[in-house]
């Protein structure tokens, strides 16, 4: 009788262990928390109640996908940007951020201004909201020097997308460049071919790090060589008066990546 009693204790103990450990396809064991067999209406929010999320039920599981990304806004403040264009550029950027989910779980925004040099105006902050980002954009400083986009883009990997400045490792990285497409420097030092080669190296370095680039044309011209290099194709070049298209593209980026992961 005593042996039979011990046998049943061991049997139920093993069943409990089987329920507590799950073995996925990769062969590794992970402990999992128990969940109730039947969700009450109050429990539904855990799966479908995200502020800007979407539940992905593919592959037999459920995971909430947010519109999360680390977004760097890069503003051209060189001499060729007119006062009117500078105002329109900032207004367009504010429309862009207003259409995104700026939150701790959603989009984090950094802001940079460039001319001859690059000004790290504002780095990622998970506590920032749309109101704060809008005020920061409105207060951007205009420099009016050479348009050195190549320098600005070369600075982004280590000055923006780094953990030290609040960048996350598990969300899409996006750069939106507001510019008229000019790339110039002192003619006595650098020729146009030198500048284009420098820009190409900067862009290639960003793409190797899986950074997505979009260009917003302040002048209405979206087919020059610089824009082609920035975006790679016309679908990533936007007119400054059509931010809705860019908003929709950015909203879908993280959702599509999340669907591919879960």
UniProtKB/TrEMBL annotation:
Pfam families, sorted: VWA (PF00092)
Keyword DNA-binding on entry: no
Annotated SMART domains: VWA
Domain VWFA: 70-257
Keywords, alphabetical: Signal
Region forming the signal peptide: 1-22
Protein name, as recorded: Collagen alpha-1(XII) chain-like
């Amino acid at each position: 009788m005593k042996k039979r009693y011990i046998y049943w204790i061991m049997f139920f103990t093993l069943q409990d262990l089987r329920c507590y450990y799950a073995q996925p396809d990769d062969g590794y064991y992970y402990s999992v928390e128990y969940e109730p067999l039947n969700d009450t209406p109050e429990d539904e929010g855990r799966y479908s109640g995200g502020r800007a999320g979407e539940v992905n039920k593919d592959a037999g599981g459920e995971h909430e996908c947010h519109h999360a990304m680390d977004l760097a806004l890069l503003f051209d403040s060189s001499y060729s940007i007119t006062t009117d264009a500078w105002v329109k550029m900032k207004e367009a950027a504010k429309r862009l951020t207003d259409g995104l989910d700026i939150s701790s779980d959603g989009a984090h925004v950094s802001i940079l201004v460039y001319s001859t040099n690059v000004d790290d105006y504002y780095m990622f902050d998970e506590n920032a909201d749309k109101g704060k980002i809008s005020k920061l954009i409105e207060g951007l400083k205009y420099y009016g020097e050479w348009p050195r986009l190549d320098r600005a883009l070369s600075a982004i990997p280590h000055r923006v997308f780094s953990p030290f400045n609040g960048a996350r490792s598990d969300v899409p990285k996006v750069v939106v460049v507001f510019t008229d497409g000019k790339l110039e420097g002192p003619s006595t030092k650098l020729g146009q071919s030198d500048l284009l080669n420098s820009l190409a190296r900067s862009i290639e370095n960003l793409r190797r790090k899986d950074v997505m680039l979009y260009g917003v044309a302040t002048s209405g011209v979206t087919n020059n060589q610089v824009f082609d290099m920035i975006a790679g194709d016309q679908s990533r070049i936007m007119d400054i008066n059509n931010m809705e298209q860019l908003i929709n593209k950015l909203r879908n980026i993280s959702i599509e990546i999340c669907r591919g992961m879960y």
